[in-house]
Amino acid sequence: MAIGDIIVGIDIGTSKVSLVIGEVNNFNQIEVICTASHKCNGIQKGKIIDENEIGKLIHRAIKEAESEASLKINSAYVTIPGRYVTIVQNSISKDARDKYAGISAKDVATAILQVRDIDVPDDKQIIDIVENQFILENGKTVADPIGNLSGSFTLKAQVILADKEYMRQIANIFRKANLDIDGLVPTSLAQRSVALDSNELNDNVMLLDIGAGNTDIGVFEGSSFVYTNTIPLGGDNITSDIAYVLNISREEADKLKKQYGLALKSFIDNDNEILLTTCKEDNR
Q1: pLDDT tens digits along 142-152
Q2: Residue (of 226, 215, 152, 157) closest to 189 by Cα position
Q3: Is residue 203 part of a domain?
Q4: Is residue 219 part of a domain?
Q5: Looking at the 3D structure of the chain, how many domains does it have?
Q6: CA distance 2 to 144
Q7: From CA 127, how far away is CA 104, in angstroms rounded?
Q8: Are 59 and 177 in contact (CB under 8 A)?
Q9: Among 3, 27, 78, 157, which one is least packed by beta carbons within 10 Å?
Q10: What is the pLDDT of residues 193-234, one digit of tens each?
Q11: What b-and-e string marks burial along 118-154, b requiring 16 or more CB atoms within 10 Å of the CB?
């Protein structure tokens, strides 16, 4: 990324379509300059059921963002849920072309091409390579091997595969929105650098993203992306359970969840009285 570059990201969730525009600042960080979102009913139980609706909503969000940010959007990155992602661990050992000159950029580029060489199922397609570790012949691990005086190195990486049918649907949606795809990014991988601080990036961590209808799971073993999946349960299920148990409307149940919902039991105030306005007299 270069200073001033514009990055556009789109997330197609179970309840809304969200768009964000970021600009690379002088600290090589992406600074958010515009966001837009619209409620969406085009996905049910994690599956795309209405490509036309999603395409129209993305197009609408783009026009709003273009007007607010005063720029033209031609392409964007899009997230892909864990249920459509497969992670394959692979490694490749590579000799430096000239060990006296050090490892070159071409050596690294060749290693990345070679680490992609795996058996890919017919219904999958490689969408990304996540470089995990570069290990020199003396056993030292480096973030960037280029220039190191080493006769060889080993690249450990994750090969990210995506479901072809889902990719086909996303391509159709972006075509309807007159937008090119810069790349597909697993939801959990996109969230990792946002949710974790610098001290946590090397820890063993599981990320849970609880959406309206799905919960995305991402597991990281240090810097390795080892597992991702999607559970077809989310915030809407919690709302439905509250409405059913308390015999109240979904609207009030949703407000109740947002106002009083707590993640830790120790935070709960058992003496708190709550008035339920939609509870039926004959079912109290």
Answers
A1: 989 999 999 99
A2: 226
A3: no
A4: no
A5: 3
A6: 18
A7: 25
A8: yes
A9: 27
A10: 788 888 888 899 999 999 888 999 999 998 899 999 999 899
A11: eeeeeebbebbbebbbbbbbeeeeeeebeebebeebb
